[in-house]
Write a structure and sequence with these properties.
614 residues, alpha+beta, Heat Shock Protein 90, Ribosomal Protein S5, domain 2, five-stranded mixed sheet, 17 helices, 33% helix, binds adenosine-5'-diphosphate, binds magnesium ion
């Protein structure tokens, strides 16, 4: 029998490699953007036609290539980024496999123009399906411009497999977002069919996130900054309210490389605990810096999967770092994280009075974080971390990397899951008030203890915010309009914000010096408290909240919720308790009051049984 094994010609080998690395126009964008980053570019311009099906051009101002390198760069396994196997353990660049350009050139028409800064003239190379058609000298700016036309022109099956333009464009934008978020210090622009879709000047991470996601995310980001023995964690996580029903803005980068890891996504979810329900996805932009020697990026051709030396440890540290950030936020949710997160905070006995001291640099909390009383954010890290870690030993960690995203087992009360499930958990027993402060309510699985003031604040906050945002008025006419008198300072403030205050359901107008006439009040106010007192409290709370720059609607909703809420110490009738429980669990965020106090805690029957040594 004759020998039948042959080496494949380069062109075919490259086409096969391309099958793995280049799946669609978006993969071209990713590879070319990463090459530009690796070349040290400070500005990268991307020009796309027809979702990349007609052409993709990436122009950078990076270091460019010599004439020989320009030709070499299209050879398979041609890279300037590693030289020996050892280099695989200290990779700092995005690329290193030397197959992107070879793959792209095998399945498209390529024009590359490149010039090194110290050369007067640039080089141009034209390639069609691996074959160099032309190489010559041209005038060019320093840097590199690569244009890819007619992708998959010689692989009809692939070309047919491409989806509609909007779908392909969506894939492109996904890749674009990952690269731009990881490189906020680089200026990016993206044009599609002549329209500029993105113009992202060099900035910091927060501005870059806003550039990508829009301004509405601005005050919803909580900073993360922890330095641990296994990794440095930084970036931002979204407040609970940024969670969405669909998967979208979940980014984890390891050494600036976007990676997919169900396992680490699970760690993030676990950090939110009962702050979000099971069916929503939190928003996050997390950056892990890990010694390249402790990871293996070379497990997948597109390099979006990584092997960690000790994944469990990273899981733990990540979870605790985020819990720490979320904990700081929920202790003092009204602090402005935009300016400086190295704040100090103290809590007074009253949940609504959060006094902040933004001057001090060191975190000096004297308020224990739940279950982590020993954890002081300001302590030097090694000791602090040991202490936190002790508490972690018992945490259940899923063993596999698969399908863990939706299986978060919160030790917290299952009521956080969904409302229909919630209902079936309630029993019909009447609630009971303890010390005129807590409501005890029996559940099928145990009991819950509700803090009446925190719960009512939550209910009122959502109610008033809704009224302000949707312009729905819930006003109750006064049978006999009466006047209220304020001190001069308060009167000045009220005059200024009168129309917004009236949007809460008041009907007030100026009536002489410091006097206002009240024709109507928001319905449902506690009739035992005088309107004068409520308005006075509202204004003083509004003034206190000003320092947190919440925006007038949020501020007024919080202030009004605080002023009008049922206070601890007030006796409640059974119906009032039942109504409050119903209202609380009709809220979008029943877990915490707007000022960050827990609205309820729960006790499971088996926990009770354990305590009684049953
Ligand atoms: P890799 O990035 O894995 O090294 P590529 O095929 O993407 O492989 O690129 C091959 C080589 O071409 C790179 O190692 C680099 O030296 C060079 N190169 C590619 N793109 C650029 C660019 N935009 N600017 C400068 N050099 C580049
Ligand atoms: Mg590359």
């Amino acid at each position: 029998m004759p020998d039948i094994i042959q080496l494949l010609p380069d062109g075919i080998a490259n086409q096969i490699a391309a099958g793995e690395v280049i799946q669609r126009p978006a993969s071209v964008i990713k590879e070319l953007m990463e090459n530009a980053i690796d070349a040290g570019a400070s500005a990268i311009k991307i020009i796309i036609k027809d979702a990349g099906k007609t052409s993709v051009q990436v122009v950078d101002d990076g270091k460019g290539m010599s004439q020989t390198d320009a030709r070499m760069s299209f050879e398979r396994h041609a890279t300037s980024k590693i030289r020996s196997a050892n280099d695989l353990f200290c990779i700092k660049t995005m690329g290193f496999r030397g197959e992107a350009l070879a793959s792209i050139a095998a399945i498209s028409h390529v024009e590359m123009i490149t010039r090194q800064i110290n050369e007067d003239i640039g080089n141009r190379i034209l390639i069609e399906g691996t074959v160099i058609m032309k190489q010559d000298m041209v005038q060019a700016m320093p840097g590199t411009s690569i244009t890819i036309k007619n992708l998959f022109y010689n692989v009809p099956a692939r070309r047919k497999f491409l989806k509609s333009d909007p779908v392909e464009l969506k894939h492109i934008l996904d890749e674009f977002h990952r690269v731009v978020l990881a490189n906020p210090d680089v200026h990016f622009t993206l044009h599609h069919n002549g329209n500029e879709l993105y113009h992202l000047p060099k900035s910091n991470l927060k501005q870059r996130i806003i550039g990508v996601l829009g301004k509405q995310i601005n005050d919803k980001l909580i900073p993360v900054n922890e330095d641990t023995e296994v990794a440095t964690f930084s970036g931002f996580i979204g407040k609970a309210e940024t969670s969405r029903k669909t998967q979208g803005d979940q980014y984890i980068f390891v050494n600036k490389r976007f990676i997919r890891s169900n396992y680490l996504n699970h760690a993030v979810r676990a950090a939110y605990e009962d702050l979000i329900t099971k069916d929503v996805f939190p928003t996050y932009f997390l950056f892990l810096e890990i010694d390249p020697a402790n990871i293996d990026i070379n497990v997948h051709p597109t390099k979006t999967e990584i092997k960690f030396e000790d994944e469990r440890l990273i899981y733990n540290y990540l979870r605790v770092s985020l819990k720490h950030s979320l904990g700081q936020y929920s202790l003092s949710p009204m602090l402005d994280f935009n300016t400086d997160h190295n704040f100090a905070y103290k809590f007074s006995g009253d949940p609504n009075i959060v006094s902040s001291d933004l001057v001090s640099k060191k975190v000096t909390s004297s308020y224990p974080l739940e279950n982590e009383a020993t954890f002081r954010p300001g302590q030097e890290s090694s000791k602090g971390w040991e202490q936190i870690y002790q508490g972690l030993q018992e945490i259940k960690i899923p063993d596999t990397d698969h399908d863990v995203v939706n299986t978060v087992e919160s030790e917290a009360f299952q009521l956080t899951i969904d409302e229909s499930e919630t209902r079936s958990l309630f029993s019909t027993r009447e609630p009971y008030q303890l010390h005129n402060t807590y409501i005890i309510h029996q559940l099928k699985t145990g009991m819950m203890i509700i803090d009446q003031q925190a719960a009512h604040e939550r209910v009122l906050y959502e109610f008033y915010l809704g009224a302000l945002q949707n312009g729905e008025l819930f006003s109750q006419k006064e049978l006999f309009p009466h006047t209220i008198e304020l001190d001069q300072a308060q009167a000045i403030v009220l005059k200024k914000i009168l129309s917004s205050v009236n949007a809460l359901g008041f009907e007030m107008e100026e009536f002489g010096q410091n006097t206002f006439i009240v024709h109507g009040t928001p319905s449902g106010l506690d009739s035992s408290v005088s309107i004068e007192v409520i308005v006075q409290k509202l204004i003083s709370q509004y003034l206190q909240n000003l320092e947190f720059e919440l925006g007038i609607e949020d501020n007024l909703a919080r202030s009004m919720a605080y002023s009008a809420s049922i206070k601890r110490g007030k006796r409640l009738e059974k119906e009032e308790m039942t109504r409050l429980i119903d209202q609380l669990f009709g809220c979008g965020m029943p877990y915490k009051s707007p000022s960050g106090k827990k609205c309820y805690v729960s006790l499971e029957l088996d926990e009770l049984a354990k305590r009684f040594n049953h």
